[in-house]
Write a structure and sequence with these properties.
Layout lengths: L5 H25 L2 H6 L1 H22 L11 H25 L9 H31 L2 E2 L2 E2 L1 E6 L3 H12 L5 E8 L8 E2 L2 E6 L3 H10 L6 E4 L6 H13 L3 E4 L3 H5 L8 E2 L2 H5 L8 H8 L3 E5 L4 H11 L5 E6 L2 H14 L4 E6 L5 H11 L3 E4 L6 H5 L2 H21 L4 E5 L10 H18 L8 E6 L2 E3 L5 H10 L4 E3 L5 E2 L1 E3 H11 L12 E4 L5 E2 H11 L10 E3 L18 E4 L5 E5 L5 H16 L3 H11 L3 H22 L1
Parallel strand pairs: 3-4, 3-7, 4-6, 7-8, 10-11, 10-13, 11-12, 13-14, 14-15, 15-20, 16-19, 17-22
Antiparallel strand pairs: 1-2, 5-6, 8-9, 18-21, 20-24, 23-24
């Protein structure tokens, strides 16, 4: 039953030896020498019994499995409880046998202390010896100098990293110092490594260590809270001194490893991160929990994140609607692995197909619908306006009409900042999709109480069409990185944060969100695209324009230098939730909007792209004028670029 390997047999034998000598030692500590000699006969019998009990209990406790070099607090507690169990069982046996006549009962607590101390102490001595030996050998490994590491953040993760680094026989790092991030005072020690200063002193401490012959090769951020501007300062110092920069996993992951897990590079979103909005998770739970939820575009960047966060809110059923077979397979597989208990349906369907959408709603009976399916690539859609209309407008109309027909409680439509003062085909089609949902929301019908909530926001980092993955690919290929214009800016937000706010928008009640209004996410300040490209290069430990070229290519069709989240005539008001604003966007009556939408769809179905463009010019005020201005600006920019070359 208990198979003990030769290596652990020695540990078991040593523990048993300690147990056999602990009782006589405890008796000697309690009694004077004369009294000790007088109780020797009974003490010998007691020792035999104690050793036998120890043998059985140690066998069941399996202390031999505990690696001496890595003894922890939990291991010490296990040893203590095992010793206590041995003594309680021994005391019970001896009391029933001889009632311990003539033997002081104080020997038992003394023995608990003696045996616990010797068993823990012997292991601790070996651990300290091992860590000291490894620390001395860490300077050189196979004739190669270990990399000097400066930890940024005196956190639990920093302590766990130092410990796992000491345990690793193949260690290639030597931690030479820790910079305090508000956790521990200067001069304190973390596993023998000194806290040498604060994070604000990074540049000074780098110079100090360099003068002492310990120039850091790597900066490792150990504090998960270091983001945004604080992280940017660290990146600047690392880039100025050509030092590699990484971030540690969390402390729990480090503690589970016997060697340092792979450190990861700093990600761009960590530099751009803002303070997280305070969300009402209970409201989101009331919206989703126990409900039948349907998500269109479920395999896309936004759609898949919606599905993941919705699943975490315990819906009764999730219906995944996606046109891409592979994307649908991936998100369905994710749910099967992470949320196997949640009922789900994975359906290949095109939102353009009205009959299929009607059939899905009839069969699935959703209560909440998130409509994320859309075509979003601005330059591609400029030459294919019919395709943009059929997906972005017709697809939205089909889903919205199905919501009304099957009495869905709430439909949340995911829109885009390009719908505000649109100059592109993509933006125009999204604005008309917004208008259709707005007009339906305003149409008062006692028998059709579906609530339509439109959420408008800018770019999300890491999405399929985002500029960041393109930059990363170009960087991996050695450059150059292509930027359209020095002055181009965009609003950016992480996918996770955007989807959280979309879910929060779905919880807005009628008092805060009047019918026909549009919810606009607070995206913060727009970010310069050139600055983003420069940061990515620096994060890779390279120098812009020296190691990696940046090439300016000019605006593409449908692009403009800046985006706006709301139109000039849209009055913007706040809400009770951080990160959510409401725009009072103007819209015509539903009958008028529907006629316009139907005409556009009919024209697009005949693939008459020129006629579609003409109808968009009529449908959206000043659309043609803004596009003309944009194109003139593009031509002037192209000419300027040509003259510079």
């Amino acid at each position: 039953m208990f198979k003990i390997a030769p290596r652990t047999a020695c540990i078991f034998a040593f523990d048993l030896l300690l147990a056999s000598v602990s009782l006589p030692l405890a008796a000697l500590l309690r009694l004077n020498w004369e009294r000790f000699l007088s109780v020797q006969p009974i003490l010998v019998e007691m020792t035999i019994v104690f050793t036998a009990v120890s043998f059985v209990v140690l066998l069941f406790a399996r202390l031999h499995r505990v690696a001496w070099r890595f003894i922890s607090v939990n291991d010490a507690l296990l040893i203590t409880s095992t010793v206590a169990a041995i003594n309680v069982i021994f005391l019970t046996i001896m009391f029933m046998w001889i009632r311990l006549d003539g033997v002081p009962r104080a020997i038992i607590p003394i023995n608990i202390f003696v045996l616990t101390s010797t068993m823990i102490g012997s292991r601790l001595v070996l651990r300290l010896w091992h860590e000291r030996r490894v620390s001395k050998s860490s300077m050189e490994l196979d004739g190669q100098k270990a990399a000097y590491v400066l930890l940024i953040g005196a956190t639990d993760a920093a302590e766990a990293f130092i410990l796992t680094n000491l345990r690793d026989h193949q260690k290639t790092y030597r931690v030479i110092g820790v910079l305090d991030s508000g956790q521990r005072p200067k001069g304190s020690l973390i596993r023998g490594v000194s806290v040498i200063g604060s994070v604000d002193e990074l540049d000074e401490k780098f110079a100090f260590l360099t003068r002492r012959g310990m120039r850091p090769d790597i900066f490792v951020v150990a504090d998960q809270k270091v983001r945004g501007e604080a992280l940017q300062q660290i990146v600047d110092v690392a880039n100025a001194h050509a030092v590699r920069l990484f971030r540690l996993p969390d402390a729990n992951e480090l503690r589970r490893a016997n060697h340092p897990p792979a450190m990861r590079p700093i990600e761009l979103e960590e530099l751009l991160s803002r303070s997280e909005a305070q969300l009402d998770h209970f409201a989101m739970l009331r919206l989703i929990g126990g409900k039948n939820v349907l998500v269109t575009g479920a395999g896309g960047s936004i759609g898949s994140e919606l599905v993941k966060q919705i699943a975490a809110l315990s819906p009764d059923h999730i219906t995944l609607v996606e046109m891409s077979e592979f994307n649908l397979y991936e998100i369905d597989r994710y749910l099967a692995g992470r949320f196997p208990h949640i009922s789900r349906s994975a359906l290949i369907a095109d939102v353009r197909d009205e009959s299929v959408i009607q059939h899905i709603f009839e069969k699935q009976s959703p209560e909440i619908v998130f409509h994320a399916a859309a075509l979003k690539h601005v330059p591609l859609l400029e030459d294919q306006p019919s395709q943009a209309v059929l997906t972005n407008i017709k697809g939205t109309r089909n889903v919205a009409d199905a919501c009304v027909a099957f009495n869905v409680e709430t439909m949340v439509m995911v829109s885009s900042d390009k719908a505000a003062h649109p100059v592109s085909i993509m933006g125009a089609t999204k604005r008309l999709a917004e208008s259709y949902c707005q007009s339906l929301d305003l149409e008062v019908d006692p028998t059709k109480q579906t609530r339509f909530i439109t959420v408008r926001f800018g770019n999300v980092l890491g999405s399929a069409g985002s500029v960041v993955p393109l930059f990363q690919k170009q960087l991996a290929e050695g450059g150059p990185i292509t930027v359209t214009h020095r002055s181009m800016t965009r609003y950016f937000m992480t996918i996770r944060e955007a989807v959280q706010l979309v879910l929060q928008a779905g919880t807005l009640n009628y008092d805060e969100l009047e019918r026909g209004r549009i919810v606009v996410l607070d995206m913060g300040e727009p970010i310069n695209i050139l600055d983003m490209a420069t940061q990515l290069i620096k994060l890779a430990g390279l120098r812009p324009y020296k190691d990696i070229e940046i090439v300016f290519t000019g605006l593409r069709p449908g692009e403009r230098l800046t985006e706006s989240l709301f139109q000039a005539d849209e009055e913007l008001v706040g809400t009770s939730y951080d990160g959510l604003q409401i725009a009072n966007a103007k819209v015509g009556g539903h009958a008028f909007v529907r006629r316009l939408v139907d005409q556009l769809i009919l024209t697009a179905s005949s693939h008459n792209d020129d006629a579609v463009k003409d109808l968009l010019d009529v449908a959206i005020s000043d659309f043609a004028t803004r596009r003309a201005v944009m194109h003139r600006g593009e031509d002037e920019h192209s000419a300027a670029q040509h003259s510079e070359i």
